[in-house]
């Protein structure tokens, strides 16, 4: 069982930045691929970004490419999501996820955090 805890969400004006952090309480963290997903009210969960277990591969949704950056520090069991030039449409609950298979589909990920709210005002 992998426990994931997100932090760093909040309220920010459009054009601003936030950095989300996901702490993993699991000694085998470095063997998992990690992803960030988000879900806005009334909408389906959607892929945001993914990073491979060693950090050598990253993938982004087209909607965030060039604005968001995913990274990980396996020594600290942490994955980060740096979000710049935020837009009101980025407003959602953001979830950190871990899984044995790399990809953009949420069923690939076995473990999920509780989520952190990001609200971007116009």
Record field, number of beta strands: 11
User: What spatial form do the alpha-carbon principal axes imply?
Assistant: globular
Give me the number of helical elements.
0
Beta-strand residue fraction: over 45%
Largest sheet: 7 strands, mixed
| Poorly predicted parts | none
- End-to-end distance, in Å? 39 Å
The oligomeric state is: single chain
Helix content: under 10%
Mean pLDDT over all positions = 96
Order of helices and strands: EEEEEEEEEEE
Structural class: mainly beta
- Based on CA atoms alone, the radius of gyration comes out at 13 Å
Report what the structure shows:
It is globular, with a radius of gyration of 13 Å. Strands 2, 4, 5, 6, 9, 10 and 11 form a seven-stranded mixed β-sheet that branches. It is mostly beta strands. The protein has strands spanning 3-7, 10-13, 18-25, 33-39, 46-51, 58-60, 68-73, 78-83, 92-99, 111-112, 116-121.
């Amino acid at each position: 069982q992998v426990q994931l805890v997100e932090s760093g969400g909040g309220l920010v004006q459009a054009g601003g930045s936030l950095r989300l952090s996901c702490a993993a309480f699991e000694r085998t963290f470095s063997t998992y691929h990690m992803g960030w997903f988000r879900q806005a009210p009334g909408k389906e969960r959607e892929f945001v970004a993914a990073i491979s277990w060693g950090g050598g591969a990253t993938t982004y949704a087209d909607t965030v490419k060039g604005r968001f950056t995913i990274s990980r520090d396996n020594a600290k069991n942490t994955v980060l999501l740096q979000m710049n030039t935020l837009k009101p449409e980025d407003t959602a609950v953001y979830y950190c996820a871990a899984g044995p298979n790399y990809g953009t589909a949420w069923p690939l990920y076995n473990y999920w955090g509780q989520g952190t709210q990001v609200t971007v005002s116009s």
